[in-house]
Every structure is written in structure tokens, then in C-alpha cells.
Amino acid sequence: MTPARPAPDFTALFSARARRMNASAIREILKVTQQPDIISFAGGLPAPELFPLEEVRRAADAALTRYGPAALQYSTTEGHPPLREWIGARAGIPAANVQIMTGSQQALDLLGKILISEGDTVLVEAPTYLGALQSFQPYGPRYVQLPTDDGGIDVDALAELLQTTPAKLLYAVPNFQNPTGRTLDAQRRRRLVELTAQYGVLVIEDDPYGQLRFSGEPAPSLYELGLEYAGDVEANHILYCSSFSKTLVPGLRDAWVQAAAPIVSKLVQAKQGADLHTPTLNQMIVTELLDEVLPRQIETVRRAYGQRAAAMLGHIGEQFPGGVQSTRPEGGMFLWVTLPEGIDSTRMLERALSRNVAYVPGSPFFALGGGENTLRLSYSSATPEQIERGIAALGETIREALD
Fold first, then answer.
1. Contact indicator for 162, 42 with CB cutoff of 8 Å
2. What angle do helix axes 104-115 and 261-274 make, rounded to 10 degrees?
3. Helix crossing, 222-230 with 186-198: angle to 10°?
4. Rounded to an integer, what distance in angstroms lies between the CA atom of residue 339 and that of residue 153?
5. Strand runs (DSSP E) across 319-393, as ranges?
6. pTM for this structure?
7. CATH number of the CATH domain containing 391
8. Using the 8-state DSSP alphabet, how is residue 235 labeled?
9. Pairing verdict, β 39-40 and 357-358
10. Whole-angstrom Cα distance, residue 176 to residue 331?
11. Distance of CA 55 to the CA centre of its chain
């Protein structure tokens, strides 16, 4: 037998871009939470028992009946025209300014690909969505963190920063932010739009949770304010991303970007190189669900998540020791816990897992490090009984870490 040849040194062949890639801390933790006895507050997973299974089945049949073989054929990169038209009509913009994406994560990746050059300054919230950092990192940005509080981004700090620091891009999750659950204050939204327009900074508004408000009053999107400020869709410097993953089902992977024509045109080119187009049948299924099923589904999810958030906050108040703080979200899927200084939530995770409860440590959500004493909890996919037991176990873990 011929002796096996030594394997090539594959890692030495990776591009500089590939070397900047890193694994998602959340995805690594989710591997552990697949064990049936683990109560997971880690992944931001929609509640599967709320999925409109029968409605999706009927929508698939309707799409196949309506479109026949075309439902299973290649289609245009831009997306299914009726779906783009519906999204555009809701936003008050032409369908030509809507690009369908295979999930919001693809939207972030391709926006990073077409906008970020090596060394470009990208402004992000501290903390910010880990998936955005993971998408942008291969393109070599220079991150600058923006301070935040319960009202979202500190726009006074943003104004001061922009006087001395030219930036290309600002990434923000203004509604029920991942990871903190906070919402950007309405007055701050308007000032953020004006400041970024004044200094020539593009804004990526990531809004997968905006329809999932269960308390408080809604505020206009940054995109709406940008459209009002610019007076024209082609002059709007806000790029809006959203998805049907959190309102309908995640498995269909249908999302979209609203933007000026030059951005959409370049996204089309980038998407052609990535996957040609979002799956045809999936887009048609979503379109069949828009008018009747989607509004009902949003109300179902809002009500359930509101009850689960209230239950989690109630048990946190009862079970967590003094000195532990948590945000109070008005919607979405997450809340943020700040532990006393000196407690490292990453080191504490092993103790939590020994009590069969999981969360995501906070530090990966900070582009430049920090947040060791923070963690993210998701209430969306846990039952009330799991929330009660899991928060009790986590309270014991925190008290042990304090000793």
C-alpha cells in the first residue's frame, strides 16, 4: 500500500480575510444546550410551538398550485416581485428599492462586503449584536464603540465623536436591541439621523424585532426619519434590514434590505456571487402568508413573549441577589443582566451548566472587549416552568460566584 501523503498545511493557505473569521460564541454554546435536560436562555430562538405549521403547509400548496413549475425554478436575484411590492408599499417606497435576502445574516454580510474596506471606521453600540461583528470582521473594519444607556445610543457622545473621528458606517439595532433588549429613544433617533447625515455616515438599521412590541409606544424607524429628512428615497442614507424569521418562521430564511438604488444594485451583484437568489418557493410561501396569517402570527408572538418576559423579570426580582441589574424590554426576545464587578460571566457559565441552565456571556457582544460581568438571557423559547426553574438555578449560581 502506498503510504499516505502528508496533509497540506491548509491553515497557511487561508486568506487574510478567512483568518479574521471567528466562530459564533452563541453557536458554540447552543451545541451544549442540545442536551434535553438543559434549560437554555442562550439562543435567540423563536418559540417553535407558536409556528403556524398548518398555515405554512397550505401556503406551500397554494404557491405550487398558483405558480406550478416556476415555484421550483431559478428566479431573479432581486426577489419575488409580489413580495418586494408588498414590502415597498408598507414602507412607502418603490419595489425597486427592496432587495430580498436569504436571512438577515446574509444582508449584514453582503452590506459589509460592498461597504467596508480595510481600515474603514465602523461605529457600533457597546454592546452590539454579535452576528453583525461576525459578518463585518472579515472585511477589516476599525471598530469604534458608542456608549449606551437605557435610552439606547448616547447621541451626545456620538456628536462629540463625529467632530474628531470620520466614520463610514454606523450599525444599530434600535428596537429591543440584541443583546440588551433596550429601545432607542424617539428623540435620540431623530438626532442620530440628523448627525449621521450631517457627517456623511451611512447607517445600517437592523430591525428584526420591531413588530414584536408588547408594551410601550412605538417610535418611527430610523429609515422613516431618514426618508423624511432627505425627502427622497434615493437620498436616504439609512439602510434598513428586516426579516420574517422572528414574525413568521426562521427556517424559510426570508429577509430584505431597503436602500437607495446604488446600494440595491451593488447588493444584487454581491448576491449573485453568493447564492444567485433566495429560494423561490420560500419567497412564494411567505407571500401567501402576508395578508392574513402574518398579522395574526405577530399578535400571537407578541402576547406570548410579553408573558414570558414578565415571568422572567418577576423571577429575577425574587431569585437574584442584590446588586444584580437587568433591563426591562418593551418587546423582542432578550434582556441583559449586569452582575457586580469582579464576576466573570464566562467563567460562571460552567457552574450554571452544572445546574442545567445556559445563557450567553456578555463579553463577545463588545467589539473592543469588556462586559465580563454581563450576560444575555432570552425568554422567547422557554416555557413558564422552565423560566421559573432556570432563573432559580441561575440565582444560586450567582450567589455562589459572589461568595
1. no
2. 110
3. 50
4. 21
5. 325-326, 334-338, 357-358, 360-361, 374-378
6. 0.94
7. 3.90.1150.10
8. G
9. parallel
10. 6
11. 25
Within a domain: 64: no
Per residue of the chain (403 residues), what is the pLDDT tens digit?
576 788 888 888 888 888 888 776 666 666 766 777 899 999 889 999 999 999 999 999 999 999 999 999 999 999 999 999 999 999 999 999 999 999 999 999 999 999 999 999 999 999 999 999 999 999 999 999 999 999 999 999 999 999 999 999 999 999 999 999 999 999 999 999 999 999 999 999 999 999 999 999 999 999 999 999 999 999 999 999 999 999 999 999 999 999 999 999 999 999 999 999 999 999 999 999 999 999 999 999 999 999 999 999 999 999 999 999 999 999 999 999 999 999 999 999 999 999 999 999 999 999 999 999 999 999 999 999 999 999 999 999 999 999 8
Radius of gyration of the chain (CA): 22
Q: Could you give the CA distance from residue 263 to residue 244 in angstroms, rounded to a whole number?
A: 21
The cell numbers describing 380, all together, are 422567547
Tell me, yes or no, whether 255 and 303 share the same domain.
Answer: no
Say yes or no: 167 and 37 in one domain.
no
**Same domain, residue pair 140 and 96:** yes
The rounded distance, in Å, linking the Cα atoms of 244 and 211 is: 10
Residue the block writes with cell 418587546:
331
In a domain, 66, yes or no: no
Residue 379 carries which side chain, given as an amino acid letter?
Y
How far apart CA 256 and CA 267 sit, in angstroms, is: 11
Sign of CA dihedral 99, 240, 27, 300: negative
CA gap 388, 41 in Å, rounded: 12
